[in-house]
What does this fold into?
Amino acid sequence: MLKDETKKSIEQAIQIVNNTDYGFTFSLPDNWKGYSIIQSTWQGNPLTAIATKETGPKLLIRNPNWTSAVPYEDIPIMIFTLAQWNSYTAENFAVSAAPIPATELARNNHYVFALPPRWDYDFGQGYAEAENILKGNPLKTFDITKVSILKDGRQCYTFNHEATATEPYTVNEFLDISISGTKVTGTKKGTQKGPDMTNGYSGTIMGTLNNDTINDVFSYTVEGSSNKEAEIYRSREDQIGIEKLRYPLIEKSGILVPDITKGFSALLYARVGCVASN
It folds into this structure.
């Protein structure tokens, strides 16, 4: 039989999740040794005329006993920029159909960490243990100095858009770029499918990086026709990827260029791994 002191020591032993990208630690019981972190995203749907669709990272801390046959309850952490959280609490967008809001756990100088609404309402295996862990206020934050996602080296991103009533085209793109100082080179390929066309396109990217913004020219071929489009990408504060600033396009000297006198929408290109065959 274990002595009381030994039992207490074992019960208090912990695993520490240390995330330096977003600036937090999370304490777990020792029986969570072998936990995993699943990268996901949350989606925010506009509730007002001035709001835009929002998205951001969601990390799932997964019990080491989780299997597809017996999926233990994850501990989900939604990560908002400070500006996103202020917009969310002002009810400009919603992250769930539930009539209750996400719950703030903590914040640092760049991010707010929150629990999704009704995250445990599926009463999955081990949900009570996950709830008890959260009752101990296991998430602690620290301030961070942010490093841009756009730095020297090879980087890959994907863009995926499902057809909607107002934008009836399904689009999938893969962006593979290399950065060296201010020089940006790479390739982009994609497919688009809609009610009046289905095609694929691919081409090269040449551009420059300045103040976390890429200005490039995408030279591509679609259905045997050569085209050029000037593009603008910028880094995202939440580091899950970059975003393309989609302005209306106008033609100048044979190149489609963004009309920056008009408004734009921001398209998320999520960061993914690069492989040799890309």
